[in-house]
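One such given next:

>
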Amino acid sequence: MENPLRLLAVFQFSMPERDLRLLGGLFLIAVLFGLFTIRKKLLTVGGAVLAGTTGLWVCYFAGFFYILPLMVHFLSSSLISRIFGRSSLTSDEKDGKARDAIQVFCNGGIYMLLSTFLHSNGQLNEVMLIAMASSIAVSASDTWASEIGSGLNGTVIDLLTFKVVPPGISGGISFWGTLAGLAGAGCIALLFLLNGISGFATCVITSAGFAGMLLDSLIGAFFQKKYLQKATGILSDRMLEDSVLISGLGWMSNDLVNLISNGVIVLGLAICYHFS
């Protein structure tokens, strides 16, 4: 029996053969998707525009299938975020709000840009494919780990000091969050496995996604801004009343940490494949 996800390859035309009616239909779907996410307060207007643009870009340059990992990441992240809400006192100021364009780009921008080079002279670039998959696996792993780990309120350890910190704080990891991060990376890798990549590539994608989640936490522990409220002693990623910056860089946001960790993993993979 033909793999149902393999059938999506029928949409993977080379650019000169693109069916404009198909692209027009996809544009309409992107508009409806944007309106839905704005109404449900999942995305801001800017976030919806960039998300729609990302989907169309990926479809045009890579193929219809490659929208699926983006959708799985977005929908699973939105659902998990609704189920496991982080503490508003410890997480950053964007937590619990509709995702804006910066958040969309920091999670899917590298995936979008890499899709431009997925096909070269009509041939699939396997290294670029693994890099794309690993990029979105990092985003999914980090989101699943952050939302589920903090939502379950287990013991959270700061990677820099190895001290117990409040759930939701940047740079902290927990048992359940780490396990959820592995599951998130594996979920994305499984999609590509069903579309025909090798078992070895699936393991590489899962490992890269998981490593990206750990790297994100490490960068967050070292460089992301943290504030201490003097009166209550609450440690937070956001500036509260009567709070002072006690660690990290004032301009280092969670979005920037996500983008850096994603980029480092993709660059690291490219270097490894180049010298292998």
